[in-house]
Amino acid sequence: MPERTIRVALCDDHTIITDGVRNLLFGAEGVECVGTAANGIEALYLLEHIGADVLLTDLDMPDMDGLQLTERAKSKYPELRVLVLSMHEEASVVKRVMELGADGYLVKSVGRDELVLAIRNVFAGRKHFGSSLTASFLRNGAETKKGSALLSDLSEREVEVLAALAEGLSNKEIGEKLFISPRTVDTHRTNLMKKLEMHNVAGLVRIAIKAGLVH
Length: 215
Hints:
This protein is an alpha/beta fold. The protein has helices at 15-25, 40-49, 66-76, 91-99, 112-123, 131-150, 156-166, 171-178, 182-196, 201-210; strands at residues 6-11, 31-37, 54-57, 81-86, 104-107, 128-129. The protein starts with 5 loop residues before the first strand and ends in a 5-residue tail after the last helix.
């Protein structure tokens, strides 16, 4: 339990969300909502005039979104903890937000207990990812690792051809893209099937997707 009350500022362009989160935090020991904002511009103004410890923000907002807000708020207030509360669960989105300085990430299906725990964790200097995100990352990470291992025996050109096949390009189109002849593309495709032990292009596409060459 923190020695003093954690002051939390909320930022979301939907009043029902800010009202709902404020109600969730009401009565939580050691946590207090000290203000709300509807976009990044309002949030920066709010932060300038109140002493917040944690900023809880959405990503999709008008005027200034959560990505811009995270970057600017962390730059101006290095000690401020930023906790994102969003509908997005894609690893690429989470990664981008964390690169900009966010301290934690929750999806909007989160319950009160985990929300309060996340606020306390980031305030204490720990990173916090929602439990649903952690499971998703572990699952995706295992698949990507497995797919990447399958590509370890391929040459750089073979990987390029594999990615192009997965995009649905024909031998002629791949040849034009990579500046090689269609016959050379066909040779690479045959070699890919042998090395990856696949008998058709559909199988190659599945491996390309697992390895993260296409999404």
